[in-house]
Amino acid sequence: MGTLIALEGLDGAGKRTLVDKLVSELTSAGVRVAVRTFPRYGASIHADLAAEALKGAHGDLAGSVNAMAVLFALDRGGAVAELTELLERHDIVLLDRYVASNAAYGAARLRQGPDGEFVEWVRELEFERLGLPRPALQMLLDVPVELARARALAREASDSTRELDAYERDSDLQTRTGAVYRGLAQQEWVSSWKRIDPDVDPAALAADLAQWI
Ligand SMILES: Nc1ncnc2c1ncn2[C@@H]1O[C@H](COP(=O)(O)OP(=O)(O)OP(=O)(O)O)[C@@H](O)[C@H]1O
Ligand SMILES: Cc1cn([C@H]2C[C@H](O)[C@@H](COP(=O)(O)O)O2)c(=O)[nH]c1=O
């Protein structure tokens, strides 16, 4: 049975970039690694509806914190069988965002903290009702909000398909989300957490992750 590891962080933090480097390092070291990214755009109606809502579609859908979180949760709920199968065939299944994204962004929108009702609601909905596998390790790519924003803006300027959505445009939301994430990491929400610096060495981190197999 493989080890489930999730990478979390703000929009533009560099998660995708780091995941790609980790896969390259782990694969070179002979580790069987699979990657999945949430939301599953193009593969899940729930993910697509959420993305469209964050770009202004579907009336007042994006205005409801719980409705948005249910969409993200149902997207993941549809991936339970695939995750289970991937874990059977790989040493590590690395996730670019997972359940903690829902907890952190939703709590931040509601101005709640990591110990608040919303975080507990997400835990119960996703791990207990939807039966999502619990990650062995959750990593927080802890990039200052200004750096994450600069990276998201640079990406938007170079790629017309990556226009900032409502969450990305809201700098205060990103700041509060960062604070909730750090609280979740500090209290080891659901499983172990590891804080990752922006200048992390991917080779060293990959070697560390291989210890979790
Ligand atoms: N270490 C880095 N140094 C410089 N630029 C970086 C670094 N990591 C990522 N970037 C750049 O920052 C932008 C955002 O990176 P990336 O897409 O990996 O972030 P992300 O956390 O996956 O974002 P999102 O959650 O919004 O999809 C990209 O243009 C990427 O090339
Ligand atoms: C998976 C997930 C994501 N979010 C938030 C985080 C982002 O601001 C957007 C879209 O995600 P992307 O990585 O920029 O494509 O949605 C969330 O609130 N809950 C989730 O479960």
From TrEMBL:
Positions in coiled-coil regions: none
Alphabetical list of InterPro entries matching this protein: P-loop_NTPase (IPR027417), Thymidylate_kin-like_dom (IPR039430), Thymidylate_kinase (IPR018094)
Top-tier EC class: transferase
An example Gene Ontology biological process: dTTP biosynthetic process
Enzymatic reactions: dTMP + ATP = dTDP + ADP
Pfam families assigned to the protein according to its UniProt record, in alphabetical order: Thymidylate_kin
SUPFAM superfamilies: P-loop containing nucleoside triphosphate hydrolases
NCBIfam families in the record: PRK07933.1
Function statement: Phosphorylation of dTMP to form dTDP in both de novo and salvage pathways of dTTP synthesis.
PANTHER family reported for this sequence: THYMIDYLATE KINASE, UMP-CMP KINASE 2, MITOCHONDRIAL
Family indicated by similarity: Belongs to the thymidylate kinase family.
Name recorded for this polypeptide: Thymidylate kinase
Species: Rhodococcus maanshanensis
Gene: tmk
